[in-house]
Design brief:
Distance between the termini: 46 Å
Helix content: 25-40%
Number of domains: 3
CATH architecture of the largest domain: Alpha-Beta Complex
Shape: globular
Largest sheet: 5 strands, antiparallel
Number of strands: 20
Structural class: alpha+beta
Strand order of the largest sheet: 6-7-12-10-11
Bound molecules: NADP nicotinamide-adenine-dinucleotide phosphate
CATH topology of the largest domain: Uridine Diphospho-n-acetylenolpyruvylglucosamine Reductase, domain 1
């Protein structure tokens, strides 16, 4: 029997709750709007010994066609409060707030720190998990606190930024403590001047639109325009946006690999821009995908590459999770054959036990 005070629904389709729009149903499903809902859900799943899967904005997941066993918990806590601190602002946002609404609010208040992260789908709770970043900003630089429910104890815990083990598109919530904490709120400390963006696409837009001394609002306009051009702003009418965003993380390669890629770039007439970072050189995954022969708009059944950005795998219409994963594995294999680099999938692949292509996607090549 289902607990009366909790009331999870059964057999709830999950595809409509994701930007990619694939996947089956949740055996049990609860939309949590309070902290109490989350704690009750943890107990409910624990008492029954069933798995609990947390879903946020659904922008970075591929859900198995067979659906998910156990309880799927959609974190839908809302609210965003602000207070001033010195010249800056502290924003306390609940995990279920739509991310771009929080960015837009910060820009409206005229404070800096999130403006380059405009137009990213999903909700606040997912941002510390993968240390969301774009165009030279990362949430780890402005997060002052992460609040979460510890699934082991059911208690509320808080982490300072130094406790989160943030790295490039990663954190403890994605690595050592994967699955342990359910983020309920994130606090951001914002202020200072706008990020002078060094990213060519954004800088060019600002230059072309004569925003010579850009405000945070100018930077937001620029980032939104660039993202739209790449099909990276969710739009129901644009099939290129029916995706989980970039499907692969931009890899860091060694100096020797970078030199080998440079030689290939010269042969292919496709200049490579590799950025020096700790541990090597960051290479655009989109460049590697094109070097392997995949063009924007490439199709394999109902799955395809966006015609605007080959790094996004899209649901052309009626795709299965199997088709999406099949194409991703095909691309990953092509890149390994052409350049020896093992791309890492960025979205979480949920379920898919027994799917060899999904297992291959998780392999690191080490
Ligand atoms: P892009 O702007 O063409 O950049 C491709 C690669 O070049 C990225 O690895 C980027 O580093 C690097 N890069 C470009 N200009 C740079 C500069 N001036 N200094 C240092 N590194 C530079 O890539 P895109 O695929 O269209 O993505 C646009 C932005 O959105 C990128 O910043 C990307 O990382 C970000 N993004 C983030 C997520 C996420 O957080 N989950 C998902 C998708 C895209 P960085 O990756 O360090 O920016």
């Amino acid at each position: 029997m289902v607990a009366v005070d909790l009331g999870p629904q059964s057999h709830v389709p999950l595809a409509p709750l994701t930007t990619l729009g694939v996947g089956g149903a949740a055996r049990w499903f609860l939309r949590a709007v309070t902290l109490h809902d989350i704690q009750a859900a943890v107990r409910w799943a624990g008492d029954r010994g069933v798995p609990l899967t947390v879903l946020g904005g659904g922008s970075n997941v591929v859900i198995a066609d067979e659906g998910l066993e156990g309880l799927v918990l959609q974190v839908a806590l809302r609210g965003c409060e602000r207070r001033t601190q010195g010249d800056g602002l502290i924003l306390d946002a609940a995990a279920g707030e739509p991310w771009d609404a929080v960015v837009a609010a910060s820009v409206g208040y005229g404070v800096a720190g999130l403006e380059c992260l405009s137009g990213i789908p999903g909700s606040v709770g997912g941002t510390p998990v993968q240390n969301v970043g774009a165009y030279g900003q990362e949430v780890s630089r402005v997060i002052t606190r992460v609040t979460a429910v510890d699934r082991l104890t059911g208690r509320v815990v808080q982490f300072g930024p130094g406790d989160c083990a943030f790295g490039y598109r990663t954190s403890r919530f994605k690595t050592t403590d994967r699955g342990r904490y359910i983020v309920t709120a994130v606090q951001f400390g914002l202020g200072g001047g706008p990020a002078g963006t060094s990213y060519p696409d954004v800088a060019t837009w600002l230059h072309d639109h004569r925003r010579d001394v850009p405000t945070v609002a100018d930077v937001r306009d620029a980032v939104l325009a660039v993202r739209r051009r790449k099909g990276m702003v969710v739009d129901a009418a644009d099939v290129d946006t029916h995706s989980a965003g970039s499907f692969f993380v931009n890899p860091v390669v060694s100096a020797a690999q970078r030199d080998a890629l440079d030689a290939r770039a010269a042969e292919a007439g496709k200049p490579l821009v590799a950025h020096p970072v700790e541990g090597g050189f960051k290479v655009p995954a989109a460049w590697l995908i094109q070097l392997a022969g995949f063009r924007p708009g490439y199709r394999m059944g109902q799955a395809g590459l966006s015609s605007k950005h080959p790094l996004a795998i899209i649901n052309v219409g009626g795709a299965s999770a199997r088709a999406i994963i099949g194409l991703a594995a095909h691309v990953k294999r092509g890149v390994i054959e052409s350049s020896g680099v093992w791309l890492q999938a960025e979205p979480e692949v949920l379920g898919c036990e027994g799917n060899d292509e999904a297992a291959f996607l998780r392999q690191t090549g080490e």
